[in-house]
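Two quick folds needed for the group meeting slides. Do the first one here.
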Amino acid sequence: MGLFNVYPLFDITPVRAQDVYLYDANDTEYLDLYGGHAVISIGHSQPLYVERLTQQLQKIAFYSNSIQNPLQEEMASKLAKLSGCYDYDLFLCNSGAEANENALKVASFVTGKHKVIAFKNSFHGRTSAAVAATDNQKIIAPINAQQEVIFCELGDIKAVEQALIAGGVCAIIIETIQGVGGLDEATTQFFHQLYSLSRKHNCLVIADEVQSGFGRTGDFFAFQKHEWTPDLIPIAKGMGNGFPVGGVLIHHDIKASYGMLGTTFGGNHLACAAVTAVLDVIEHNDLMKVASDISAYFIRQLRDIPQLRQIKGRGLMLGIEFDFPIADLRKELITKHHIFTGNSKNPNLIRILPSLTLQRHHVDTFIIALKQALKNSNK
């Protein structure tokens, strides 16, 4: 049996990883500034993380959500403490798409409505409602088109208001910082206006923190910079440092009922061990401060590059934008300089999403390589 061929792959086969590095069978070292789509938050093969998962695997790896699992409550308590989100309850699932799917479902249950407002260049996942709220027609199948989604320009509050006035909207879903779309972020005023309009028109606001959460921006959640209170906060990626896990923070104003949501694998014992380890490492190593400090250094070094058009994002969720397509530049970075970076819907933008353990000398390595690659390309 072959594999269903849906991924264009680099000719690189990592066999082991440590902190911010990957190694192939020939022991070639690659600097990982992409973290497998912002998943690696505390470093590859982090010792405490490996120890906790190993210990848990030797006890009990899984049972369904039909029994007591104190590990879920321990993890939720630590998540509330580190994030400051004490006014929420946690529903656990397996991925970012599932997290967004369940958030949209909750909004529809609560309001009794079905329309969704999303934004141009958004990405929320590939499940039914989540993919319908994603601004990419290539990945939306006819069966997904049954969802009714209105796409507004990011920052266009008048368009949002008109869609709400038309009626039937259960949720506004927004990435605090757009990931796949290219690192754009709305203003604090826009987020406050969204929230105000949602109260007026009886809909919920979903802050998609799947990529930007768990300390990546220097705050635990990116929305916290803007000082507002989302109704629902989908989380995943850096949450498990590579273990497949997701969740939704659901505000206390929303009441649960048996059967409202459900999952077989979500919140299993191994997943809880992984997330708790991630939270402990972020706290004990002060990784949110590290992300802020290294980001400031990274940005200072980038500003010395004359070809640079602008720097987007915050913390260690950065976009490096040029006036030309970066596909060849990115290819040279990985093949000649052995540095992983990411791309986006914006063809001129390199995405930087490393582990929060990144250090200055890693940044220096990248800057030297980037300057050389730009020189080689005559840019």
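Then this one, please, same format:
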Amino acid sequence: MPHTSPHPQGLQQKPHDAKSRLQQVDNLHTLLLQHMVQGVFCVEADGRVRFINPAAENIIGYASDSVAGTKLHPLIHHHYRNGNEYPECECPLYLTLKDGKTRHINDELFCADGTPIDVDYVVAAIKADDKITGAIVLFNDTALARKQQALLEQRELSLAQAQSLAQLGSWRFDVEQQSLEYSDECYRILGWPSGT
């Protein structure tokens, strides 16, 4: 007679199998953190750095072991973009550590060694048994994206000026939307009200 078990086949594990799987999950988490392009800070409930990943080290210029145990806010988030002091009680990380809400922040500065770094970031609470035990911060250095956007805007302005000088217009057909987009100069040449 076959042996029957109250557990579905494959769900009952021996202790060493569970330990092995836990080690595999831990290794996977380590690999993910090491190879992410986003910077990651993990902080304790008091705002002290537990660890940072290699991308964060590259972006802010601090080694993980040199900032472990240091309060994050005074280290990198101490001033607003306008140079005014950024009180810790207004910091999204501090607020998340108090209320547990996830926050998405765009267009802020982190300052490492006095060097401002444009960032977008998300901060989320880490909880155990409904108690906030820390937070995780994922951030992107947006300086390159902002430079590329400024360059694109400058090139679009230069194209518009060149079209005006040459009295040439242009248009673009969007295949997905099945719509035409005309340059300002094209509207002027055709005598159409802009945007019609």
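Slide caption for protein two: Strands lie at 39-44, 49-52, 103-112, 115-128, 131-141, 171-174, 179-182.
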